[in-house]
Each structure stands twice: as C-alpha cells, then as structure tokens.
C-alpha cells in the first residue's frame, strides 16, 4: 500500500475546549488507485488530506506514505520526502505571482536537483496545453490556465502520489470539467496514485473508490461500478 493510516486522529484547542476534527481513521490506498474523499463542509476532508500528505502531524495514530513513516520524520524529512514522491493541486492554485508559468513549474525540478529544468518544465506545460503561455505571469492567465500550470507543476517530478484538494473549486463548470479531464488523463499516463477531496459527486465518480467522511470519521465506502 502506498498510503496507510491507522487510528488517525486530529484534535485542536478551541475556546470551548478540545475540538476533535478526525478520530479513528483507518485507511489503505494501493499504488495506482484513485480515491475520492467526500463529505459536507467541516467534515474533516482537507485535514485528512493534509495528514496523509505529511503537511501536518496527527494528534494520534500514524501515517505511512510511499514507504515512509511520517511520524518518525522531522519537518525537513517530510519536506524532502514530499519533494521526491508527492505532487499537489489546490483549489487556490498556489502559484508564485512573481514567477512565470515556466518558472513556477521549474521550481520543484530545481529543488529536486533535476538537470535541464527549463526543458522539462516546458514539456509539462505543453502537455497541459500551455506551450504558448510559458512566459506569462499568473495575473496574465485565466483561472483555468492557472490551474493547468499548477497541474503541470504537480506532475513535474513524476510523483508517486498526487493529492488534490477541491481542484475545480474556483472554476466555472465548463472549465472545471476540462481540468478534471486533464487531471485524470495525466494521472493515467503517469500511473500516479490519486487522492482527491471534492464536494462534487460527478468528479468523485471518476475515481476507483469513494470514501464518505462525516464528523471526522469514515462513514461510507464504495467502489466505482465498472460495468
């Protein structure tokens, strides 16, 4: 299994006392699988994604990601592991405004010490249909184009696993559909494991497996009907 969580829990302090965001999460995801995590706002979806990706640490339980026990790594160790094996796509794009599209995609390649980062970044941008927009800054790109840059950046280093948090949340329906089609095409082409948080049932139906989260617990699981 490329992702495993055992008895995962997350609690935070609040004015009213300790708030439990996640409790007793047991989860295993196979390499190459696509999994959608769905649930109402406040159910803990994004928190769970952050814990699985090593962006945050749990209050209890453990996560193993691509063979690494995240609880045993310090912040630098988790960052190094993510740089080698993990890609991210966020609702808010998370592009650096002072860098061009090409430079945004080059950044993870440079951090990973990969040779000829400009050439590889250009190839990734061409794959997402932005070969003519390499030298445009985020402010010069539409929302859909910015998310295409973010997807190119996510796949730049050939990640083993991709985490996507509401990747179409800031896009109109038509543009969102195009982005989802692109995301799943690249996911197949790169044989990447995909863990996707979404509120959209139509997007979740693209995934092999659907997990429903409610009040911080997994309350339902369903495999996609391939008939």
Briefly summarize what is shown:
It is built from seven helices and ten strands. The chain is α/β, with parallel strands linked by helices and 227 residues long.
Mean pLDDT, all residues: 89
Number of helices: 7
**Number of E strands:** 10
Computed Rg: 17 Å
Give the N-terminus to C-terminus distance in angstroms.
Answer: 25 Å
Question: Share of helix among residues?
Answer: 25-40%
Give the ordered list of helices and strands: EEEHEEHEHHHEHEHEE
| SSE class | alpha/beta
Largest sheet: 6 strands, mixed
Features:
four-stranded antiparallel sheet, 7 helices, alpha/beta, six-stranded mixed sheet
Descriptive overview:
By secondary structure, the protein is of the alpha/beta class. It contains 7 helices and 10 strands. The chain has helices at residues 45-52, 75-85, 101-111, 117-127, 143-155, 173-189, 201-204, and strands at 3-14, 17-29, 34-38, 60-65, 68-69, 86-90, 161-165, 193-197, 209-214, 217-223. α3 (101-111) packs across α4, α3 runs parallel beside α5 (143-155) and α5 (143-155) packs parallel to α6 (173-189). 41% of the residues are buried.
Topology:
Elements: E1 3-14, E2 17-29, E3 34-38, H1 45-52, E4 60-65, E5 68-69, H2 75-85, E6 86-90, H3 101-111, H4 117-127, H5 143-155, E7 161-165, H6 173-189, E8 193-197, H7 201-204, E9 209-214, E10 217-223
Parallel strand pairs: 3-8, 3-9, 6-7, 7-8
Antiparallel strand pairs: 1-2, 1-4, 4-5, 9-10
């Amino acid at each position: 299994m490329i992702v495993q969580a055992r008895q995962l829990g997350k609690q935070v302090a609040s004015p009213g006392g300790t708030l439990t965001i996640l409790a007793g999460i047991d989860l295993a995801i196979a390499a190459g699988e696509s999994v959608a995590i769905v649930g109402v706002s406040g159910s803990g979806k994004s928190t769970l994604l952050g814990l699985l990706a090593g962006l945050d640490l749990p209050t209890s339980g453990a996560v193993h990601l691509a063979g690494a026990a995240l609880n045993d790594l310090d912040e630098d160790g988790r960052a190094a592991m993510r740089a080698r094996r993990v890609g991210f796509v966020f609702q808010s794009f998370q592009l650096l405004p002072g860098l061009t599209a090409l430079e945004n995609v080059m950044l993870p390649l440079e951090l990973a010490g990969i040779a000829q980062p400009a050439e590889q970044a250009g190839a990734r941008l061409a794959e997402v249909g932005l070969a003519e927009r390499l030298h445009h800054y985020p402010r010069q790109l539409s929302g859909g184009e910015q998310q295409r840059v973010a997807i190119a950046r996510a796949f730049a280093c050939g990640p083993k696993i991709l985490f996507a948090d509401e990747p179409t949340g800031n896009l109109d329906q038509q543009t969102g559909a195009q982005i989802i089609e692109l995301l799943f095409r690249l996911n197949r082409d790169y044989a990447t494991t995909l863990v996707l948080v979404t509120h959209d049932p139509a997007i979740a139906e693209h995934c092999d497996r659907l997990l429903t989260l409610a009040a911080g617990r997994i309350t339902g699981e369903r495999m996609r009907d391939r008939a």
